């Protein structure tokens, strides 16, 4: 009699896990045993007892290695540089990750999904606070504001400002008025002043500035604030004063801020709120003023911003910004980069661009998508290729557009390979 051994393939899972003390990051991984993997996280040596790992999402898939790879590729810009399986986390990103996994062709079924906890970040309303209706707001507006509050309240570290600004010719500041139009301006306590304001105050003389103007936004994280608490701090030569004009919100698009931008400003320098980046870039670029700002590292492959890079209205500054401080002054991961229209000389990152003959580019870094478009990775550039090809944000940040290449399409390029969506890029061509 013949015996057949039946072998049942172990199940394969994809999970998103988070440590309680690291709310701005999550890990996305694969395993055959969800329970054991969670135990491993919680038993890691050197881990604090208070730092509890919990699943945010788990699901069963076919071919977990493939799904994990596709996630890595899709969200490469959102992965932490050093430990590549760590991704930035907020409720919006979380929705993106799980939608990507749930709609993946190898997805089988969902096992667990954590309810959105962001709702709890809304401040408790005192009885004296006017109702939403009285303030002309829908609940949706408040929820959107709450979800955005986290990221908009990330503060730039002094050292990141120093590192970037030290790269520019000092003469650009001479006799100039600098406007920090998204700053918490200057507080009596240095600890509560924005690092931008502090930097320019400390270096006012050295840079030979004429004037520094910092706007304090009245909204901030006080979601239910309805007063107009905006104010302006000015240092004009030796004089320093603070103004709270009636009805001034401190917003960069407040009529008074726009007037200062148009009439007084030479250079704008700040880290604007991420949630308002599209409006902010439009205003600053249309103003025709010089600027040096921090924004999302993926802007060069994001449709709303691509036309500015294409038309040479903006280019990358020198550095990326990997960390910010949250309102509790704790270090949080970031995916920021400096962007500017000030002259950038001898960009050190040119050295990362590998401009060589197409035939010499390693196979794994050149692929053709389902449309026949050439995609190159790892900053390889085919020097003898005359047709358009697709590159990642990193290639643009490393200065490709200053090396005889131009962007040829106003929107991002989303390649598909064997029907599968790969991460966004931008189409470029040799001039
Ligand atoms: C990403 S934080 C950066 C703060 C500061 N510039 C820094 O780099 O440390 C963005 C800041 O913009 C403020 N803000 C939010 N909406 C604003 C608006 N409409 N106009 C001006 N500032 C705003 C936030 O309160 C927050 O302080």
Descriptive key words:
alpha+beta; 10 helices; 3 domains; eight-stranded mixed beta sheet; Rossmann fold; 22 strands; binds S-adenosylmethionine; five-stranded antiparallel beta sheet; 431 residues
Any idea how many domains? 3
Largest sheet: 8 strands, mixed
Order of strands in the sheet with the most strands? Answer: 9-8-7-6-10-11-13-12
Low-pLDDT regions? 117-132, 134-149, 220-226
Helix percentage: 10-25%
Bound molecules: S-adenosylmethionine
Strand segment tally:
22
Do you know the CATH topology of the largest domain?
Answer: Rossmann fold
Total of DSSP H or I helical runs spanning 4+ residues: 10
Tell me the structural class: alpha+beta
CATH class membership of the largest domain: Alpha Beta
What's the CATH architecture of the largest domain? Answer: 3-Layer(aba) Sandwich
Query: What is the overall pLDDT average?
Result: 85
The radius of gyration over CA amounts to: 24 Å
Concise synopsis of the structure shown:
This protein has helices spanning 34-42, 64-74, 91-102, 139-152, 158-165, 195-202, 255-263, 277-287, 306-310, 393-397; strands at 12-19, 25-31, 53-61, 86-88, 107-113, 177-183, 211-216, 231-236, 239-243, 267-270, 290-296, 315-325, 331-340, 354-356, 366-368, 374-376, 380-382, 389-391, 405-407, 416-417, 420-421, 426-430. It is of the alpha+beta class and 431 residues long.
